[in-house]
């Protein structure tokens, strides 16, 4: 996997995971948002990488399976940090 492909998949995955986290926060208000972000990132990260590997005919070697797990962790960190920081900045600018 090239660096460009990693950044592209990370950006798309973080975007979808952030949007999915915000939607599930409204559906499940009693669940911690970090747990929701983790669950959504695992789903989006794993499914997104598997789909990308299948579409690009990349073989599922041991290294590529590790990349899938690492991508899920990166997407989790990106989606958890990104949205909350944007909302916090907007609230500080308003008030």
Give an overview in words.
By secondary structure, this protein is mainly alpha-helical. The chain has one domain. Helix content is 85%, strand content 0%. It contains three helices and no strands. The chain has helices at residues 3-27, 33-55, 62-94. Helix 1 (3-27) packs across helix 2 (33-55), helix 1 crosses helix 3 (62-94) and helix 2 crosses helix 3. The radius of gyration is 15 Å and the shape is elongated. It starts with a helix and ends with a helix.
Topology:
Blueprint: H1 3-27, H2 33-55, H3 62-94
Helix pairs in contact: 1-2, 1-3, 2-3
Alpha carbon gyration radius:
15 Å
- What order do the SSEs take from the amino end to the carboxyl end, as H and E? HHH
Going by helix content, strand content and strand pairing, the class is: mainly alpha
Distance between the termini: 44 Å
Which geometry do the CA atoms define?
Answer: elongated
Count the strands?
Answer: 0
Q: How would you characterize the largest beta sheet?
A: none
Looking at how many chains there are and whether they match, the oligomeric state comes to: single chain
Number of helices: 3
Number of domains: 1
Spans of at least 5 consecutive residues whose pLDDT stays below 50 are none
As a percent range, the share of strand residues is under 5%
Helix fraction by DSSP (H/I, runs of at least 4): over 70%
- Average pLDDT, rounded to a whole number, is 85
